[in-house]
Write a structure and sequence with these properties.
single chain, four-stranded parallel sheet, 9% strand, elongated
Length: 464
């Protein structure tokens, strides 16, 4: 959604947007199964708001993204609703304020101009918070502390317990019903007293989170080494690619969303603050021997290994042994072009990425993994890869909390992939990266081939 003009004003304007922290999902489990209690509140709240407001549209008066799955344009639907809804309803919890996506939703809504029809009363706000789980005031971020909100009318049970316990425990049902009714009253009242300007056409994920950044160990820098439609090897069509590497869709039949965007979304569900970075920049930092600023994730399109320049930069990056970078190789076995070159490209990967592949083999829950062959498998595996990278990053930190410097050694001249990526629109024109740093005692390809015959022992990953 590059167009920054306003959305179509004829788009329906739901009364409220329910913002909540997603519970992490298992493989293949839809969002709707992960947040049943939030979905129950949403249904009850919609019913109460409908009764109080006289809402008679075919759609519910509120919006919750639990029914949106991959391939349904979920990001655009959320962005569109955040730009049109009248009231923003965040469900406060410790997890909520750790969620990058929730912070981005808050920021997207807060970017809209709000006018009050009631004179005075301070700075108008169309945000109506809910104590989903009680959060001590000192743990609230500044944007939440700044909201002056009176919960007295919601009942004693709500004030002492929060909304979720009232919903879960049967003896609190009367308290829950009162709290929902009072919340619906507040939403309808705010929607009638406030006028919120329609927001700009902008993806909510492009907003900086309204919440403070977490410890850098809980961040994840995602980069993509992939082809693009203007640079394809012989035998490869452009159906899975866009104008930049970050637009690669290896499972195009399963999702219209890029694999980088999907990776960022899954990482955010696991309370990582994820960003998508140009591969040229990430490789340059590793090759220059810079201290890592956060754990990393490299998504590799094996077809890009057929390009000599890309392959050499990846080989030199791998030789630096960046333990804090997790490797994933999405590969659709149903793609006839993939099937025809499978063994050739697998062998190229083995020879080029010796260290990164060996790390993947040695980490718990990742043993024996080669390619990731479906979107469900990708979503299931990614949290383990991210946590393993985080653990490796923690091991690099010195006693002062900063990353220990890389061991430098002599380096041969290397091809300048950054300039090539700038031409393709994948990098930032801020100069050529410094020379590569080698890594002594790196395993060779034959060592990895032997390891590939059976799982190695080692620690890492584990259940998040």
């Amino acid at each position: 959604m590059a167009d920054q003009e306003g959305w179509d004003e004829d788009i329906p304007r739901p009364i409220f947007f329910l913002s909540y922290a997603h519970s992490p999902r298992g493989a293949g489990r839809p969002r709707s199964v992960s947040n049943l209690w939030e979905a129950r509140l949403f249904r009850d709240l919609c019913e109460a708001v409908t009764d109080l407001s006289g809402w008679d549209a075919n759609e519910p008066p509120g919006f919750m993204d639990s029914g949106l799955n991959v391939g349904e344009g979920w990001s655009e639907r959320i962005s569109e609703t955040l730009a049109h809804c009248r009231v923003f309803v965040p469900l406060y919890s410790v997890h909520y304020f750790k969620s990058q996506a929730c912070g981005q939703e808050w920021a997207a809504f807060a970017s809209r101009e709000v006018l009050s029809e009631t004179p005075g009363g301070g700075l108008p706000s169309a945000i109506v918070p809910v104590q989903w789980v009680r959060v001590q005031e000192e743990r609230l971020p500044p944007v939440a502390k700044a909201l002056q909100f009176d919960h007295q009318a919601f009942g004693e049970g709500y004030r002492t317990e929060g909304m979720q316990p009232l919903l879960k425990v049967s003896k609190f049902q009367s308290d829950y019903q009162l709290a929902v009714y009072r919340l619906a009253q507040r939403i309808v009242d705010v929607s009638e007293r406030m006028r919120v300007r329609i927001g700009a056409r902008r993806d909510f994920q492009d907003f900086d989170s309204a919440f403070p950044a977490p410890d850098r160990r809980r961040t994840l820098r995602i980069s993509v080494a992939a082809c693009d439609v203007d640079h394809l090897p012989d035998g490869r069509s452009g159906s899975s690619y866009g104008t930049g590497a970050h637009e690669w869709r290896p499972f195009g039949g399963q999702s219209e969303e890029s694999i980088a965007r999907r990776a960022a979304s899954v990482a955010r569900e696991w309370e990582f603050h994820a960003s998508i970075e140009p591969f040229a920049d990430e490789a340059a930092r590793v090759l220059a021997g810079e201290r890592p600023s956060a754990p990393g994730l490299l998504l590799l399109d094996r077809w890009t290994l057929l390009d000599t320049q890309h392959r050499e930069v990846l080989r030199q990056m791998d030789a630096c042994n960046p333990t804090w970078v997790g490797l994933m190789e999405p590969w659709d076995p149903q793609d006839p072009e993939n099937a025809s070159r499978h063994e050739e490209l697998r062998a190229l990967s083995e020879r080029t990425l010796v260290n990164l592949r060996a790390q993947r083999l040695q980490r718990a829950r990742l043993r024996g993994v080669d390619v990731v062959s479906s979107l469900n498998e990708f979503e299931s595996m990614l949290p383990h890869v991210a946590l393993s990278a985080m653990h490796a990053f923690e091991e690099l930190e010195g006693p002062d909390g900063s990353s220990a410097p890389s061991e430098a050694s002599g380096s041969p001249p290397r091809p300048n992939l950054r300039d090539e990526h700038i031409k393709r629109g994948n990098g930032r024109p801020n100069g050529s990266p410094p020379g590569a740093q080698g890594a002594p005692n790196a395993p060779n390809a034959s060592d990895h081939a032997a390891a590939d015959e059976g799982p190695s022992t080692g620690s890492g990953g584990g259940n998040p």
